[in-house]
Amino acid sequence: MKRQVFTADHEAFRATVRTFLDKEVTPHHERWEKDGIVSREAWLAAGRQGLLGLAVPEEYGGGGNADFRYSAVLTEEFTRAGASGLAVGLHNDIIGPYLTSLATDEQKRRWLPGFCTGETITAIAMTEPGAGSDLQGIRTAAEDRGDHWLLNGSKTFISNGILADLVVVVARTTPQGGAKGLSLLVVERGTPGFERGRNLDKVGQKAQDTAELFFDDVRVPKENLLGERDGAFVHLMNNLPQERLSIAVAAIAGAEYLLEITTRYVKEREAFGRPLAGLQHVRFEIAEMATECAVTRAFLDRCITDHDRGELDAVHASMAKWWATELQKRVADRCLQLHGGYGYMSEYRVAKAFTDGRIQTIYGGTTEIMKEIIGRSLLS
Fold this sequence. Notes:
Blueprint (H helix, E strand, L loop, with lengths): L7 H28 L4 H9 L19 H13 L7 H15 L2 H13 L4 E4 L15 E4 L3 E12 L6 E7 L9 E7 L5 E6 L10 E12 L3 E2 L5 H37 L1 E2 L2 E2 L4 H29 L5 H26 L9 H8 L10 H13 L1
Parallel strand pairs: 1-4
Antiparallel strand pairs: 2-3, 3-7, 4-5, 5-8, 6-7, 9-10
Helix pairs in contact: 1-3, 3-6, 4-5, 4-6, 6-7, 6-8, 7-8, 8-9, 8-10
């Protein structure tokens, strides 16, 4: 089915993204995976190409275009290329909205130009060793000391944690914390007391630096409070639908690509004297995955359109996230099986997609949390 969501301008942008990936990312990605981190030069190259800060106003060096469909194109192409190391989607679609919607004019002048050039790499620090999806369980705390906040605590599983120059930290600013006692504080590279722990060894996404962060009596200037004091819970809830939609967009793109390469493989690979595609079981597997992908794509494209109109709610974003990521997981498993022993070899894209994609049902809110949000909305 021909997709209706994109215009000729979006497709021209897609060609630009593909050229960038072919030149600046794909030739280096294997080395980045061995290093456990991407080159900062890749971020600068993305900035030069105009791939960072798509929705940031032009006065700060951004693209000045809030059309989410451009972000969707970027996500789709990075996913198809297997470029899991360069976390442009995290930078643009998850952290960017906090800076553009909550930052003061002074903060925007300080942070957004570097955000758009790639000189300032960003991260958001929510998850803690004892608090994942449960934001009300956050223990990292900031004490009001008059002209600054005194921040103490730790975070884990922080994407871009090693490279980040600017970290948006979720912290308790009242003793009880919880929904009415969390704030967003921006901690900058080099601030005394701010330390990075291990670059964590993950199952997949090896090139994406994911770290532990530690805050020991970190003095955060009052002017680095992002948004309202004690208003972080509301800020986070307002931005989570886009984060979850972005993950879902990557998930369906990943599933479609796996189906594409597996379809080619079973046509070429022979068993018992004929191509695998000649076996009824294989045809049924391909038919089922193709149908599931087509149905999911229709729903995701509708969500993209609704979000671009400002009409996507948290419930439908949660539906998109859990359904698309679980589909990606199923498709990855079935496609690997159809590749047989070759599917288990790291040199095959299906193996890399299997391990890289496994996190999709976990970060951004687990499948179980997504179902809880949907269920509450229907039964409360």
